[in-house]
From TrEMBL, chain A:
This protein's UniProt keywords: Copper, Electron transport, Metal-binding, Periplasm, Transport
Biased amino acid composition, Low complexity: 159-181
Domain of life: Archaea
Protein name: Halocyanin domain-containing protein
One Gene Ontology cellular component annotation held by this UniProt entry: periplasmic space
Organism: Halomarina rubra
Pfam families in alphabetical order: Copper-bind
Amino acid sequence: MSTHRRGVLKALALVAVLVTAILAGCTSGTADEGAAGLQLPNEPDYKGYLDNTDNYDYTHDMRGQEAVTIEVGSKGNMGDYGFGPAAVAVSPGTTVTWVWTGSGGTHNVVADEGTFNSGPPVAEKGTTFEYTFDKPGVYRYACEPHEAMGMKGAIFVTPDQSGGPSSGAGAESGDSSGSESIEYSVNRHLELGHRLG
Amino acid sequence: MNAVTYVRQNTIALRPTLDSMTGARLAAIALATITGGVHLYLYWTQSFVPFLLAGIGFLTMAALVPTTFDHRLLYLGGIPFTAMQVVAWIQLGMPDFQLGVADKTVQLLLICLLGYLYVSERRNEATARVDVETPEPKGAIR
Ligand SMILES: [Cu+2]
């Protein structure tokens, strides 16, 4: 290899490193979910709905909390086009509040089955929309302006405190037996163990 | 003109010039600067890399008008580049609807203007070439 060509390659490598550094600088920072929940033992089946949602990592377990916050316009889908986190698991009766970050242009929150709808898209930082999920089930929703780009999310409402959608009895029926609270506290201990360990 | 000379003329030998600056060329600079600015703003607020590329593209287009750059290439390249932006916006679900409509109006005007510039400047060039190559015969009967 001639020295000239080596020099060109070196220059190209330098450019590549610089571009990577700049891109990394742009994408890091903002929008780490506040109370990032742990993963469920069994991931709910969203039937491919979140297949093109690149910020969907797993269903964040936020069961047992009365209020849960989701960012609208967090990093994802090649820009600020994400719900953060994209998928969460909550207990029935939980109020979910979507909070606009002010990034990514205009957004809204619209359930695909019409259960909830924040109205016309808006951009203003600090805008909020809330909905209380009483009925167990899987709620899929999207931001209309960015749905094609993958700005979608899901709320998995489950009375089951022990695990995922198919772990044990009571997952679908929603009965609240005495054992459930015990199970729940055990689960909590395990969670703490996870966090500390 | 061989390829090397051509590339040279449009890259390192490029120089600014206000020769043949017309109202239509000024309008093209204005439109490309507007949509370029809009896209840099969108990149700033939405971090979507294609916005950055489009912004740089349009500002480069505007900057190349008052230079010795091959204008035919500029116009012929600018038309599909701009048309792609319109198509992409529709395909992505027309996000930022109001700003989008305004921006796409600017872009459609720019496409028309680039087409007009291409045709009119080619016609002028052809006329100029004819003038040079076949000077009016002297003493011809009118
Ligand atoms: Cu959106």
